[in-house]
Amino acid sequence: EAERYHSKLFPEFSSGKRLLDVLLSSGHIVDWISSRTLTIRQMMTSLTCNSDVVLTARVTRATSHPTNDGQFLFSEYGLDVTRVFRSPAKSSIADGVAALLVRPGGALVIEGTRVRAGTDDFPELEIGPTYVLFAKYLPVTGALKSVQWGTFETQGDRVIPTGNALNASDVDVHSGLSLRSFTEMLQKAASGCKVA
Question: Among candidates 103, 191, 183, which has minimal Cα distance to 146?
Answer without folding.
Answer: 103
